[in-house]
Amino acid sequence: MKTIRTLAALASAAALLTACGGGGSDVAKELGLQNPEIHFVHALPGGPNVDFLVNGSVLQPNIPYKQVTNFANINTGNTNVSYASTGTTTALASGNFPDVAKGHEYTVLALPSLTGGDIGLIDDPFDKGVLSNSARVRAFNATVNAQNLDMYVVAPGTAIANISPTMAGVNYKNAVPASGQDSLYLSGGNYVVIATVAGSKTPIYQSPTISINNNADWLITTVPTAGTLSQLTPGQFHILVAQGGNTSQPSAEYINALTNQ
Q: Which InterPro entries does the UniProt record give (predicted)?
């Protein structure tokens, strides 16, 4: 549970909540007042459309590959998640969040494995300052049996030879920052995403210029192209960028497949 650090912060937050019209705001999440929220990313190349299930019931149906759902409210406490081919009840993969908490955002990903489907889970405690408008960024590696990678989110034209990765050593089925830790924070602006094998400065992926809005939530995920499940090489994987913002007034969340340069 998040701590309200000072009475002044609480008073400021109350004023902002009134101005925003109540629940669903970043302020409510930061103070641990917002109901937990969850969304689903279909990152399983060649997989069927799927239904996303929470505690055995369909929460969001008929999700195609390379799509991300809007955030939806869920209850607190022990929570089972899974996905199944649309219209069926047999889970292709399942997982568990043992202690879903207010103010947190949760992400579930359908992932490739060497023998079928797998699942990725991210618990984001959303520890953003109540007055911050920074964008939030996290990386996830959905490329099975591949090398770890370093991810750079930098201004266009930046040479990465002498700078540290924005998110380093992202290994399969894991996020950086890790699940349970807060996202990284960046100012809104124009960026490029560059991926290298961990420890290397040779890009194996570079995106076109992408605009990150203030208050955006970004999940940058690598996925293999169909038929190349064990490779992380130029031309053999995509970057999926799931971008979300203030879900009290949601625009459609979207996921982009950016081709290798």
A: DUF4397 (IPR025510)
- N- to C-terminal Cα distance for the chain? 43
Q: Tell whether the model's pLDDT for residue 215 goes beyond 90.
A: no
Q: Which residues of 171-198 are buried (b: 16+ CB within 10 A; e: fewer)?
A: ebbbbbeebeeebbebeeeebbbbbbbe
178 within 8 A of 116, measured Cβ to Cβ = no
Indicate the pLDDT class of residue 46, thresholds 50, 70 and 90.
confident
In this predicted structure, which of 94-108, 135-149, 188-202, 230-244 has the lowest mean pLDDT? Answer: 230-244
> pTM to 2 decimals?
0.80
Q: What is the 3-state secondary structure (H, E, C) of 55-112?
A: CCEEEEEEECCCCECCCEECCCEEEEEEEEECCCCCEEEEEEEEEECCCCEEEEEEEE
Give the model's pLDDT for residue 67: 86
Instruction: List Cα–Cα distances, 94 to 48, 108, 172, 253, in angstroms.
Output: 16, 10, 17, 23
Distance, CA of 92 to CA of 85 (rounded, Å): 7
Give backbone dihedrals phi and psi of 199, rounded to 5 degrees, phi first: 90, -10
Residue-range domain boundaries for the chain: 7-258
Work out the mean pLDDT of the chain and round it to a whole number: 79
CB contact burial 133-143 (16+ within 10 A = b; e otherwise): ebbbbbbbbbb
pLDDT computed for residue 190 by the predictor = 94
Q: How large a percentage of the chain has pLDDT more than 70?
A: 74
